[in-house]
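Q: My collaborator sent me two sequences in one message, no labels, and asked for predicted structures for both. Can we handle them in order? The first one she listed is below.
A: Yes, handling them in the order given. First sequence, followed by its structure tokens:
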Amino acid sequence: MKYDCLIVDDEVILAETTCEYFNMFEVRSAYVTGAEECERFLQEHEPSLILLDINLGQTSGFELTLGVYA
């Protein structure tokens, strides 16, 4: 499935609320709460934009981008 936006944030309430807000304006959005979940999501879906939190608990957004796009 194609998404307009993927939100990656380990703060569940923030990710969920942002996703709901975007969806209200017909920006087809989904959210994940960690790096591994993001990698699995990207194997099956193709977002146009990724909003990525830099501080993801055990890893960082920088490390995630290196792993996914290297």
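Q: And the one she listed second?
A: Here it is, processed independently of the first:
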Amino acid sequence: MGGPVFSQEAWARNIALYETIRTMPFNAELAAGTLSRARFRHYILQDAHYLLGFGRALALAAAKAPDPDAFVLFARAAEEAVVVERSLHEGFFRQEGIGPETFAATPPSPACDHYVGHLLSVAYAEPYPVVLAALLPCFWIYREVGRDIHARAAADNPYRAWIDTYAGEDFSLAVDRVIAATDAAASVASPALVERMHRAFTHATRLEWMFWDGAYREAGWPV
């Protein structure tokens, strides 16, 4: 039991993967304000699909939470994934001329479908600590990428509203709470279970890369 703090070790194990995400074309062009509208449009449509699945996985984490504080943390996070972030999407949907019919007619991309399916399968089948480790990269990597982009984005960047959301203090505090909950779960887990948590964290981090890469390529189903 115990040992190194899970989050610190997980981040250290995946630092090269994070750097690949930070510097990938989608995020580099988003920071520069040169990302094409078509790529951003693809991204926000898929992100709206993703957040519905992510919210369901968070609700399952809440259901598995061992104490009331953790239950409330993840129940609220599930609500925010669907309600708060949807309001952000709707603003960009209006800006891009995307109506409910367009969203309904746009299926989840391969990367989105894979990521959501993975999170839901983990949330249903794995114990609570592994569920949190799978959910954590979406919070943590978004914050770090958001901070990095915010630091180098011009004030007139057309994607400034999006950038400011993920570099904001409210989101950062929410991420800190999820990190703390994940570390608390790891602190009482067996070494074998902690290793399963590391595998879940790394796989979800890879899927973060796949999601942005798929948006950059505007990837759809090949058949």
